[in-house]
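Final paragraph of the annual report: two paired records, presented back to back.
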Amino acid sequence: MRVIFYTGKGGSGKSVISCATALKLSELGYETLVISSDPAHTISDALETQVHSAPTRLSGRDRKKLWAIQVDPIREAREKFGVIQEYIVSLFKSKGLDEVLAYEIAALPNMTEFVSLLKVVEFVESNNYDVIVLDTVPSGEALKNIYLPTLLGSTTAKLIKFVAPLVNITKVVEPVVGIPTPSKEVINEDIKLIEILGRLKDIIIDREVTSLRLVANPDAFSIQNMRRTHLLANLYNVNVDLGIMNKVIPEKVSDSYFNDWKSAQARYLAEAESAFHPLPLKKLRLFPSEVKGLKLLSELGNELFGDEDPAEVYFEGEAIKVTVSNHSLEVVVPLPAASRYKEVCEVERVGEDLSVVISTEIGEVRNFIPLPAIAQVMKLDSAKVLNDVLHIYFIENERG
């Protein structure tokens, strides 16, 4: 089983590349599903086939193994997590919020991407597919959802399970506090959701199963976005195995109108190769027309991968490591380009987990790293960034 995420800023071409990858995989004999979390229905346009909210098999003798699905987040949320949503609505209504507005807010931002990630768990565990390709939304929002299981930490589920037996007691004080308390059904659904998130996290951080692939264009903003995404992926222990520089103007284009564009792209491509080494970078030319339909998608897939198998793991970066000795513990977190942020990197202990915060130009990024049991008898000593690697040290508590 392989799970491949494509991410990049809007307009980078990740939807087309996702579809081309899925088509190439199916042509190689893999039972392949491409999932879209884009509300604009981009994969329907790219495949020139109406894609529905249930897996749609593309017609044609040579495409029997290619499936696609357009996630319907509203229906999925109502069917799978309606109990939780209704409770959130009741909270807002108890504060005097209009019912229609309460439902709008309860839909929660990023629900489209969030639900599509939960579908990954469903399809992985179904064992109906060899490869799942996920066309995600622009990277900043997608990554927040991909890493939500990690952000919740290991303490959340334990807390909810601890509170569950107290539901009947809280019902007594409901008139006093002025807000509805969750029913056992709500709490059970919360626990179920968190357990699914835990399984999602296990899938995402399994480097033999899941790869995150970055798509960018050869321009300053796109490459900056790609660098930030690469750093975040490493912080959350997700393997990035490939970068793709898309829409590169071919050398054979000789019109003088494009000279400045070509020169600029050459500089940015050199910058990217230096910045992301040793991550493999593929270059994909700017096609003369919009890439739509299976013929052009197949051409793009062949140009991108040639005789290679897109299901292979192209690169395996360093994972987060925890080293334990008799009197100390070290957590090592690889963070490409982290040196530029080292003055604003914070590490603190939060219960059983380690909180790591890095301030970037787009705001703070936080991750919770679970600690082994032995860390409970140790204290956080220091943290420092050396050669784009964050080292966090624990030492034994002094015995009085």
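The closing record of the year follows.
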Amino acid sequence: MKVFCLGGAGKIAREAALDLVQFGNFEKITIGDYDENAAREVAEWLKNPVVDWVKIDITNTNEAVERMKPYDIVMDGTTISLNKQSTRCIAQANCHGINLNGFGEEYEYDEIFKANGKIMVPGFGMTPGTTNMMAVYACNRLDGLDAVRVSHGSFRPIAFSKSITETTTYEYDPELPGRVVYENGRLKQVPPFARPRIIELPPPYPALEQYIIPHSETFTLSKWLKNNGRDAGLIEVRGSWPEENMKLIKALYHWGFLKNEKITVNGSEAGIMDCIAQYLIHSEKGQKTQLYGYALHVEVEGSKDGRKKRYTLTHTHPSSDGSVEGWEGLRSYTRCVGIPMAIGVILIAAGKTKRITGAVIPEEVFMPEDIFNELAKRGIHINIEEDDL
């Protein structure tokens, strides 16, 4: 099989490509990126005869589709703002697809993927993605469901890449309609910094106050449960970055900067948040943080055989302190995000899905145990606790 790594020169996507080289068995892996110098650099870094690179402009639909057509699977590492366009190209190229973000526009192309007998999995990194599998694992072991709480601590610099800066400003946009909780049978919109809750993350990460964020798990978990004749009284998704990052985002929110209103500086007009993002991208402070890595925490409460129970699932990975080669510093974050997407590609290629086609939520595609087993091969472990309440 052949894999096209779209946006493959990015810091996260290149880690996914590395995983394909290390754990996959592919005839060809192509790094496709608008930045041809970066694409060449990644292909050379991977040092494998099946890897090559090509320049691709995803906004040129016809050309991008022709680039993708010879491939079986497109692993899409592009930014949120490009995912509608990238998914359109993947569908028209008659390929399987998978991406990191999963914010919803991908489902518009469901019928094309179905007609082609192909699958598109939106949102399969650490969160969304691995968190979905953790929640499914717990839900499958309970008869009744009271609450599903998904949380993550993302320990990385606030602006180590343009796409991460975009994600930050997107998630705390005051007008964003997708910041919701699922409660009493319906989706309910909430403002930024809603429903603070202290989450006990696994070591070495600290307990953090976390807030509701606009992640797709709220939508996909509620849909998956309904598709299986079930429901939960509450589904919430929270997240946090390092404490100093959160202090900055709170200040930007309270001062109104996240509205990104236009300002004029020296005769040029730009969004105020766009200006701040540019500063962060080019500043030392925006490129560094004290603690690196990722920490997932999923808590599911319900009943089994008439007894109240709670499942708590967390995840751990190799240390960022340099004691494990390849996991130093920022790479402990970027590898955590990129590896699950690569695992998804490997499982699709191996036919280890639930034999479904179309643009499909992750819960309907993969078995949690398959994902957990693959993660363990990479030194990433899902820890499971079961408690009576």
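The chain has 13 helices and 18 strands. This concludes the annual technical report; the extension proposal builds directly on these records.
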